[in-house]
Here is the input.
Amino acid sequence: MGLHLSVQLVSAMNGGDLLGQLFQGVAGGEEVVRAGKGRIMPDNWVPPIKGPVRHPADWLSRYLIEIKRRPLCLMGNAVALFEHRSKGGTHVEAAVILPEGADINAPDTRWSVWHEIGHAADFVSTREDCLIATPHGLYSTAHIKVLRAYQNVIIQWSPCADRAYKISPPELWAEVVACAICSPAWLPDEVMRAVRADLEKLNLPLPDEAEAQIQEIEGGHE
Ligand SMILES: [Zn+2]
Here is the structure.
């Protein structure tokens, strides 16, 4: 689940449209994060690796994203949220919000945090030790074809009540990220093949294929 303050879906755009949209900002909504012209890089800049990422908190701190706590009653039905807002100019601040008292190591919460990290990778990027917005979703846009082709598989573990919004490209991408890390055996091979290089580039802790097969054999999905 997630709260996207600056999301516009770009499921059917050609390159020209997309470029035009990138530099126009997003219409409507009061918490729009506008990225300045010329500051969106064609590719995510990734900070230097300092050891493997094993925990979502490690990934978030490496990418300058805070973990904040909020009373559950102020989070709607969400188990976790990703939020980002402008700090002025092109820079943004971003946070993953967890309910007060939630244990980040509990399997369900951890899945949700990796899902929000999927949104984070999609909508903000680090550059020169600052966060900048990538308002149209870098990876949900790049992988839209395979996400659409497998959307019903990708959302099949989501609660029924969530499925209407889960088929948006950013949600499909975020679900794929969580699934690739937590339950890779659930993910269609073609989806994994399509996204693996980007997940590796993002320093996400993907289990290797042998490990994924062992998990599948043991039936030990968390
Ligand atoms: Zn979400």
